Amino acid sequence: MAALTKERRAEIEASFAKQGLMHTFQAHIDALEHGKLEISMPYSDAVSQQHKFFHGGAIGALADTACGYAAISVIGDDEAALTAEYKINLLAPADGDRLVAIGSIIKSGRTLIVCQGDIYIEKDGKRKLCAFMLMTMCVVKNLGHK
């Protein structure tokens, strides 16, 4: 697998910083490499549901973002990637202190990139898989807003 260039890393970090939702979630990039991205967010009432677990919508958004930037890490300089579809399975209540989403590439093609998102809940220093995402990204000519 090719290495992630400094330029692409900087582009991804700058793009991530522009995402209002990730700012609202207090999310940050924990690890980034070619074809893989890990992001996390702390628990807060702002991202909870009625039982004080992370809300399914927050879980989906974090996983979508992790998979999306994993895809962006492998496309050409004149291309962008947009979510075409995803399916998420919520496997266990997201009851914990921190949510971690790891997006990785399953198959990268010229127009479609299939990604996998593994979403973990961390509580008392232990990590447990709480959701799984399968996503398809569509590669398009760069839209001009990196």
Protein described:
This protein is α+β, with helices and mostly antiparallel strands and 146 residues long. It has one domain: Thiol Ester Dehydrase, Chain A, CATH 3.10.129.10. Helices cover 24% and strands 44% of the residues. Strand 5 and strand 6 form a beta hairpin. It is globular and about 45 Å long. The two termini are 24 Å apart.
The strand line-up of the biggest sheet is: 1-2-4-5-6-3
Number of helical regions? 3
CATH topology: Thiol Ester Dehydrase, Chain A
CATH class placement: Alpha Beta
Give me the Rg, rounded: 15 Å
Taking the alpha carbons of the first and last residues, their distance comes to 24 Å
Largest β-sheet summary: 6 strands, antiparallel
Return the CATH architecture.
Roll
From the helix content, strand content and strand pairing, which structural class follows? alpha+beta
Helix content: 10-25%
Mean pLDDT: 95
Query: Which word captures the global form?
Result: globular
In sequence order, what are the helices and strands, one letter per element? HHEEHEEEE
The strand count comes to 6
Strand percent estimate: 35-45%
- How many structural domains in the coordinates? 1
Unreliable stretches, pLDDT < 50, 5 or more residues?
A: none
Characteristic key phrases:
single chain; 146 residues; alpha+beta; Thiol Ester Dehydrase, Chain A; six-stranded antiparallel β-sheet
